[in-house]
Predict the structure.
Amino acid sequence: MTSKAYILDQIRTNIAKQNTTQVALPDLEIAHDDYHDKDKQFAQALQSVGGMAHWLDTQENIETFIQEHYQHHGTIATSMDLQIEHINPNDVQDPHELKNVDLAVVKGEFAVAENAAVWLQDHENINRSLYFIAQRLLIVVKKEHIVASMHEAYEQINFKENTFGTFISGPSKTADIEQALVIGAHGAMECMVLFI
Amino acid sequence: MKIGLFIPCFMNELYPEASMDTLKILESFGLDVDYPLEQTCCGQPMANTGCAHESAQLAKRFVEIFKHYDYIVAPSGSCVSMVRHHYAQFVSEMEGFEHVQKNTYELIEFIHDIIKPDHLNVSFPYKVGIHNSCHGHRELGLASMSECHAPAFSKIKDILDLVSDISFSTLERNDECCGFGGTFAVSEEAMSVAMGRARLEDHIKAGSEYITGVDMSCLMHMQGLIDRDKLPIKTIYIAQILAKGLA
Amino acid sequence: MSDHPKLAEKFASNTNRMKWHDKALWFVRQKRDIQAQSLPEWEALRDKADAIKTHTLANLDHYLSAFETNARKRDIEVHWARDAQEHNKIVLDILRRNGATKLVKSKSMLTEECHLNPFLEENGIDVVDTDLGERIVQLRHEPPSHIVLPAIHLKKEDVGTTFEKFLHTQKGNSDPTYLTHEARKHLREKFLGADAALTGVNFAISETGGIVVCTNEGNADLGASLPKLHIASMGIEKIIPRLKDLSVFTRLLARSATGQPITTYTSHYHSPQHEGEMHIIIVDNGRSQILGNKKYVKSLQCIRCGACLNTCPIYRRSGGYSYGYTIPGPIGSTLGASKAIQKNASLPFACSLCASCSNICPVKVDLHEQLYLHRQDVVDAGLLDKTKHRALKMATWVMKHPMIMDSGGKIARKLVPILPRNLLYSKFNVWGKNRELPPFPKQSFKELYKERKK
């Protein structure tokens, strides 16, 4: 008997043994705050986890924002079409080559107001490591792409084309030493969400 | 309505006055209270140690003795919780069990839910800290619990609010266990003592002059520490506040 | 044999340290409370999570099979392991097949349970735990003392000296920010040099065949996206039916665990990375047996948030090592007792039955009820201390004979007050070690009652 067959058999036998009553899979209708000012909620939540949110004026563009906000930057990596010196992470064969990236400018699909998470998926970036290896992360999200909570968020996600997706909420952090919060554990030391 | 009074075994032996105050406060509401003399123990110490066989024998006795009363009232949250939540395993088939399970009340719960007094003629001019003993608190639901998202309430506080001149301390940890826990107090002595001392520190810091609650057992444990460590605080069983001045 | 009371006493004997440990965890509990109180739908979320898990466990075979089918469609290799030994062997085989000798791991209590690290090390694999807390305890050759905060038992000075020795940090510098950033540099090298990554699994989604891994540090992700080989180990109970079920669990997990609205990284792996390999190992290791026990089946709903540890007044004052089981605290005590009652007989008693754990559990595991019931199993297995058992049997007999109880009480009330103190407070009086006995009254309530009735 294969281990798979053995385990499944054990599971079936044991479920039968305790004469389990079936509970239907519940619907997920849960009343929750829809945050009439989602932007404000998002900005506050992001600030509380060590990140920053910025809404681009109509006169500004991403390039000028980067120049103003990241005056002393090293290598920028982005697969977005930006008029600024950068490398395209999708041209890189080996993800290790991204180790010196200072600033990754990546597209966020949508933002979640309740917890300041932004959904990123690898449809845009072949190398998943870009999101985690860069010293600093600039996530660009369309202003209208913001939802209230994780309930709306999961309605927008599917894995038909994607092989990877992640919610990122603020910079990498840890409190493993005496519960002291330290920003910059392994991933990005800074996380900015730019709404355009 | 006929009330059967259950006095926990250790209270009968060690706390006759607190027990008597329980009787007095019930009688002061004009109730017909009877204390059946053949009662002993609800079986909780055995059940909490895993001795199901022994617990079953005492559960059976309890139901037998109390099944003819309209209500059974006990000055103990944990004994009542034993009856309400754990007897089913031992005596669910027994005649009278469901009646006993449904109608056994902790003293304050009974006063709050059934008697519903709107005043009490008693004064207690002290700052009091309420000890929310766990079984009354979390299993009987005498007050809102710090872990849960629910509106705040406290049946104990509601009743104590009827006492004149009383004031209350605000604790840092409103409903942490004092570490009595029945046989736990002995089998995990170090933990029990550490937990008890932590509760006392919290109360002393909050300025409680008296600690009161619905379980004499928790108070006995904390008083034992107070006496040993000579701490500037006292415990008092809640009925002893409510029955002050009753003949 | 576990001996919680003794190890707990040892931990608590350093009063300052015990209080510090209690406070550190209470701080986490308070952060959790703020999050729970901020969502009016908190209890509704717990109910949904409970219902999803209950349903899933009752149909576990179906959801696991579907998960495997869907994962295979995504080029993920799925393996099944009956026990720890088989799991470890599968990991080693995969590594050997790929010529991998350097493994970076992210936190996985399952691999702790399987004792994977020593096994791999014996077989020539260089294993590096990458979660900061986990790395600290790995360098110290200690197991994690908490399932979410592995190094919560250590002071920053302890970490400082450990890092001085192994990472050559500045002498005497125990600033958490400094130490964390030094660890960052050290572990970056490890990530970049690794041949393979092993992660745990927070959720495995049956309908999509993918897994979700949650971290704050980003260590799981950095590991799983640099080397081309990713192995993920999961217990059979990690499965959830639908992708959208995550809307409930992601809202509960981090809030319960650390009091954050969500973990920094919540990553959904749904295939190997570009030109890489991905393996998922589904491990039973005794779990299916718990599935057959109605009393304890809900313990398999656990999502390992650690909230029951943080709220447990005993865990906070006895530390993770006092339990002698991979997972400490209330959830570990029930899992340990289910797994090996003989070995873990003291764990169901490492609890005052305060019920805070059951209240705080985001998936509504009836923890304190389970510990109450496990005590009966201890007695049934003949593992209760004989003296204690005899005493309770005797007490029961007395309680069945009110007249004997009354006269016994009477004698005690007469005798105790006249006993010399050194006899009354002898070493047999455990109560009296740190506590006074109550003053013994002259009469029992029953005696007063009878007099009053006359």
